[in-house]
Amino acid sequence: MEHYLNFSNTNIWSEIWPELALALAAIVLLGIDLFRKSDKPIVSIGSLAIVFQAGLLIFHLFDYLAWHHTFDRETFSGMLHQGIQGDVMRTFFLLSSLLVSVLGHQYLKNKKLRTGEFHHLTMLATAGLMLLVQSNHFIMLFVALETVAVCFYTLVAYNRESAKSLEAGIKYLIFGALSSSLLLFGIVLLYGVAGNPEAWGANYIGFEGQDPLGFQYLGNLLEANPDHLLLRAGVVLIIAGIAFKIGAAPFQIWVPDVYHGSPMPITAFLAVSSKAAGFFVLLNLVNGPFLGMSEFLMPLLGFVATFTIFFGNLAACTQRNIKRMLGLSGVAHAGYLLVAIMASMQFAGDSDRAVWVLFFYLFIYLLASFAVFGVMTVARLNDETEHEFSHYEDLAKKHPWLGFVLVSGIGSLAGIPPFAGFVAKLLLISIAYEAQLYFSLAAMVIGVVISIFYYFGWMREITFHPKPSFSDEEEEKEDPWLNVPRMGLFKFCMLALAVSSIVLGIWQGPFGDAF
Amino acid sequence: MTLDQILLLGSIIVPALSSALLFAGIGGGDYWAKKLAYIGFGFPFIAGIVLFFNFDGSNGGYCFEIFHPRMGLQELKITFHLGLNGVSSPLFAMAGVVGLAAGLTAIRSGAERLRLYLALLLVMQSGLMGLFASIDLFFYYLFHEFALIPTFIMIGLWGGRDRRSIALEITIYLTLGALLSLGGLVALNVMVDAEKFDFPSLSLALANAEMLESTQIKIFGLLLIGFGILVALFPFHTWAAKGYEAAPTSVSMLHAGVLKKFGLYGLIQIAAPLLPEGALAWSPYLLWLALGNVLLVGFVTIAQTNLKSMVGYGSVMHMGYCFLGLAVCSSLGAGSAVMLMVAHGLSVALMFLLSTYIQKRSGTFEMDEMGGLATKTPVLACFFVAASLATIGLPGFGNFWGEFGVFLSLGENPDHRLFLVLAALGIIISAIFGLRAVAKIFFGTGSDELIKHEKENPISDLKPAEIIPAGIILSALLFLGLWPRGVSDRIDQEIGARYEKIDFAALSQFTPACCLPNADDVGLDNNQTSYDSLQKSLPVKPISDH
Questions:
Q1: A219 contact partners, CB below 8 Å, separation of at least 6
Q2: What letter does residue B393 receive in the DSSP assignment?
Q3: Which one of B71, B73, B168 has the shortest CB-CB distance to A456?
Q4: Which residue from B266, B271, B286 is spatially nearest to B211, judged by alpha carbons?
Q5: What is the ipTM metric for this complex?
Q6: What pLDDT, in 10s, does the model give residues B284-321?
Q7: For chain B, what are the domain ranges?
Q8: How many Å apart are CA B421 and CA B426, to the nearest integer?
Q9: Cβ–Cβ pairs < 8 A, chains A and B
Q10: Domain boundaries of chain A, sorted by first residue
Q11: Contact check, Cβ <8 Å, B189/A430
């Protein structure tokens, strides 16, 4: 009886209204698309999705600013946990989803693909991501993660006419399934130990009747038994499952292939939202239930971070295809972010600063990535997966605004002042120092210097005149920038991204106080 | 806000603003672009000169301070804090002078896409002025990056041979240096529990809580290697000459003359006074590396046949003297290094400017393809001879006082006498390449190539518009050489106050009582120059009355 009372008392649906609204709107959009008769509608599905998501973002921000005193509580019998950190991430995902829709709108128009399902799946995935970052229970975590993953499998293969897109979809499906199964296996191992009172004898006292998959309970269990072999195996498997999602080495092998084949807005979605969700989950886990094992996890994560940084940067240097290069540079960024995660573990109990640095980095990464992928969406290539450096020759001269947006995005990713990426890297370096992670810090600095090679190489193509070619027979090259359409909203969004990258690099304003 | 403060802030904002207007395409046409650029380069020049003479260092510390605590990352204790002290004010003025000369050259250069060229150069100028005006260490670094990034772009866009690959190489190399020094600065920020991230707060905090020697050595090492890459310290110097050769003239002038002083300025003004034990521990290694700059790079310079790369290598070679002055770890050495930095900035900029004038007339930088120019271009020859003599370090020019001071400081310490002898060889080296260049270009008979070139392009002497930028720099050099006290007094006040706090005699085993100034004599009295204190501390018997 008490159990049911607990249920009804903690099921506060109003706490998850943005997710509900998003999912509901996604279904409504699908319905409109299904029952609409005319071929030339007054309002396109894409515009509807954009307007709705923009509205939701504004309302959510308002809600966040007005009501955040209610934060920090568990709802749905401990399944979800509402906190200020989770809410920042919800805003992050809403913003990212809005930008994916803006990019998608442009992309689908160029490619003449169906729009309804695209926006439907994007919004569903976002709702799943928002639940994922609030999950406080392994069942919730797994269900939310699978919701997101299923949407992504479809979205990656959305361009059905392109063999590469389908191939990427299959690859992502197989690797995703593998990672999910690793994660699930880890969860099962934890449950196997935690759910059996006899397995850990006297330590059990005081935890009777608690949910063995809740984060609170597992945290206590792991703190009491940091040397338990099965628990360690479970923790490692769970982290491996998440490492797949964030593309950390040695589980990064799918990244370049899937980024290469998927439609451009989805590449951005994967690079930003999916990765950020993985990081936030990892952060939550290592600072929550896994904190008791930090001594065991630190060297492990340190190795993964260093390996990821070096692999990502070195492999990106050799790429000629820009989408693959961006994928691998994203791997390197995952390595930098892992350093922030390690710092948060090192500050155990007082991890807020490291968490805010992580958030700042993720937001800057969002701004920069969408700027870069946005410009790439505009390019009209016969085969959109084959973006080469040479396609960007002299872009700054042909279309100054596209050049400006792209350079600001690349500059921010590379961490060059005055772009915001520099401040993000500076903060990361400073917390790594404070956490005394000198080895990872050295790897990070070397990695950043290596990354200058490919980022600057790309910038060079965009801004500097190409060499005059001496051969008489000028090879007929396709020019992807020939018919750039007039795009009001799209142009506005792109310029806003670029400008905010620069403004945040010079003046951090409220972000500076947040730390 | 007083007028002086407005000038200080304006010297950063006016170039930045004119550059923004140029980027935005206001006015249209090259005519207005040039007018804007005159304002953008003129204002820092005026500000530099006025603030140089208005500087009142009698009570030590910073003048014309501007402070905005809310304009930075609060988390890292960063504030917006501008001001000039005895070390930065001559460098600030030098940046203004070289900036104007480079700007005038750029305005008349007739480069392709002139608006963009001027806009980027103005960003650089703004960063350079901000660099020397910042008290806060983060903004000091940030302004450096503002000046550095246009360098890469301008080499890539308007550079000479192999510009694209050299731009990439320089970017990677210098980013490594910048990141290492940023790492060092962040380490200072994290390790020292100071109220603000600027020099006065840091030294106050360090006075209260000593830093461990091992930590000092690590942080100083990071700063030394990071800044060393940016200044082209011996094993990390390979980027410099190549980059200057490829860069357009104005960029070479600003980078080699002013921007490269960033690292040394950081080491002398910040690193060595804050981390004295670290500096002492690194000093023996630094002495050898600096000697590498002077001798090895010096020999490389002699071997150059290309005028511009000779000037580039020569500039790298002379940075060795500045490092020697720093490595001595005394107020005389560090002060002379600052003096040399100011003079070197001017003379190198002048050399780059003149070599471009020569190239315009002879059509090449190859010295073997010139000769006998003195008869056709007597004014240019005068300028070039003067600039060469300044580079060699002859009395009458600022470089003399800097190099002389460095040698003196090396002589102070018996252990450094070997370095004194070896470093003095550098003067012969610079005389060889300097005078040989003068001989090859201006005297003798014209080479066949030059005669052929002259038939198509008649050679004329310098025009007034060309004389002005060169004249500005040369007069500044002469000013410095004929009245060094104007600079050395204020350097002494600042450096003396900083370096005397460190009891080097006690830190190192040797105690040359007759050579090091006595702490009692100098420590409290800021008005004494260390030249004076040097004499005072010499064991002269007081003359008795009877």
A1: A288, A289, A290, A291, A292
A2: T
A3: B168
A4: B271
A5: 0.82
A6: 899 999 999 999 999 999 998 888 899 999 999 999 99
A7: 3-532
A8: 9
A9: 76
A10: 2-466+486-514
A11: yes
